[in-house]
């Protein structure tokens, strides 16, 4: 199982009281399976080459680079937690030689299971009418 975390694009939420807009970010745990190497998928995610259709609906589609996936959501046991790392100088006074700190940036209780799909252009059906 290859799983990646994807931050969905910011969505505008309109507040009708004062006509202002707020933006919401949410994170998704996406399981792309084993068909495509995860490092290749992550390269496209890091470059921002991710598009989605109906991501919060019943029939989500996700395009990561040249790869297209159709998915469905499942609840997970526990909570998916998303972190970012920040580098800090090593503290010489302690035995902790770690130079990275983790900062929680989001959580999710669902996983998006993805299956690779192939999209082909529709064939043009031409009809000819003959007059008798």
TrEMBL record:
GO annotation terms (biological process): transcription by RNA polymerase III
Entry protein name: Transcription factor TFIIIC triple barrel domain-containing protein
Domain of life: Eukaryota
InterPro entries given in the database record: GTF3C6-like (IPR042771), TFIIIC_triple_barrel (IPR019481)
Domain Transcription factor TFIIIC triple barrel: 22-118
Organism: Didymodactylos carnosus
Organism lineage string: Eukaryota, Metazoa, Spiralia, Gnathifera, Rotifera
Annotated Gene Ontology cellular component terms: transcription factor TFIIIC complex
């Amino acid at each position: 199982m290859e799983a990646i975390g994807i931050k969905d694009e910011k969505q505008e939420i309109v507040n009708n009281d004062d006509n202002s807009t707020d933006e919401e970010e949410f994170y998704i745990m996406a399981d792309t399976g084993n068909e495509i190497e995860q490092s290749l998928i992550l390269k496209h995610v890091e470059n921002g080459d991710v598009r989605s259709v109906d991501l919060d609906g019943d029939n989500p589609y996700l395009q990561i680079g040249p790869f297209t996936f159709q998915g469905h959501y499942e609840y997970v046991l526990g909570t998916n937690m998303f972190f970012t790392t920040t580098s800090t100088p090593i503290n010489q006074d302690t035995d902790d030689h770690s130079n990275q700190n983790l900062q929680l940036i989001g959580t999710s209780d669902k996983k998006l299971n993805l299956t690779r799909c192939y999209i082909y252009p529709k064939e043009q059906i031409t009809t000819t009418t003959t007059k008798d």
